[in-house]
Each structure stands twice: as C-alpha cells, then as structure tokens.
Amino acid sequence: MAAISICTAFAGTRRLARGTRAEVARAVKAALEQGENTSILVFDDREARQLEFDLRGTAEDVAARYAEAEAEPDAGGPEEQASTAPPRGRGRPKLGVVAREVTLLPRHWDWLAAQPGGASVVLRRLVDAARHAGEVKDRVRAAQEAGHRFMTALAGDLRGYEDALRALYAGDRAGFAAASGAWPDDVRDYARALVEGAFA
To answer: What does the alpha-carbon distance between residue 167 and residue 120 come to, in Å, rounded to a whole number?
Structure first.
C-alpha cells in the first residue's frame, strides 16, 4: 500500500484541517462552499511542501479521488524487490553478515589489530557511528528546510520572522521560541513542530 501522508490546511493563519489528503481536501472543499474567502494553503506535514488539490465535483467526489490515490500500491512491491536482490555471498547469511574485500594501508591494519574485538567489530562500529552522524545532519537539514518553507509562506510578514530564521539555522531552540512567541497560535505551533528536529 502507498504510504498515507498527513497534511494540514490553513485559512490565512488559522488551521482549517489536518489529516489524510482525502480528509483535508474534503474539508477545503466544504470551507470554500461555505464562503471561506481567506486564502487557503495546504502543507505536507513531513516537508512542508505546498499541495494543490483538484476540487472538482462534490465533496464526496473530492474525498473519493484522494482516498483512491492513497490506496494505490507503490511501484515495485516486495516480490519485485526480492527478485532484484543480489545473491548472498560468503559470510554469515543468517545474521545478515556479508564478506567483502577491504583494502587498507599497513598502518590501518596495524591500528585495527590493536583494537579490542578484532577488525570486523571495529569497522562495523566505525561505519555505524558515521551513519548515525550523517542521519543526525540529514534530520537537522530536513527540519530546517521544512520550517523555512512553511515560515516563508505563512510567517514571512509576521514580527520575529527573520529572528526565527536565524535561530533556526543557528540551532537555537530558545531563540526560535522567543522569536515565534507572538505569532498566531496555529502558525506558531505548526512551525515549532516542523523545526523540532533542527535542534538535535
């Protein structure tokens, strides 16, 4: 099944709806039919990218259109992925360990030989540490980009916007909270949730 993405709609600076695309599209359609005259923007909750909805037809038509899209399977299911997996080589396959050649200089081998646990244990530990450091940086960058996108769209004219951006990129949680403190509640709360990962 396709991953169900959650999104949030704002009518001006007021949160109008939050939920699946089908739920939010239906709420947006209903709000427009009831005479909502404030600009409505919809954001994907993961990356804060703006979404456009096809609102033709009735509210039921709109909800059904997006419910069907969310129910479509992803391209390349587990069977297809399994067929393209490389054959297992030497190592301990039950543990997922695969033996591959590693080429190092003598000083590297000397250093590895002096470490407790042996070369394989040390190399695995080093790789895991590097992966973890990369994941933290990726998470921080993604949160900064999402926060920047949302704030530019809805908080760009609000007092404290530039200070909030500076605090976001400086990793200053307290500064961000102070700069966004006077914003409308819904905008402030959504922005703070988006950027939480930037303050790792």
So the answer is: 42
Cβ-count burial 114-153 (b if 16+ within 10 Å, e if not): eeeeeeeebeeeeeeeeeeeeeeeeebebbbbbbbbbbee
Identify the sign of the CA torsion 150, 152, 157, 160: positive
Largest CA distance in the chain: 75
80: pLDDT strictly greater than 50? no
Pairing verdict, β 14-20 and 50-51 = unpaired
Cα distance between residue 144 and residue 79, in whole Å: 36
Distance between CA atoms of residues 59 and 16, nearest Å = 16
**What single letter denotes the amino acid at residue 175?**
G
Q: Residue 177 and residue 164: Cα distance in Å, rounded?
A: 8
Q: CA distances (Å), 42 to each of 19, 61, 73, 126, in order?
A: 11, 19, 24, 42
What is the dihedral angle through the alpha carbons of 193, 195, 197, 200, rounded to the nearest 10 degrees? -120
Indicate the pLDDT class of residue 189, thresholds 50, 70 and 90: very high
pTM: 0.70
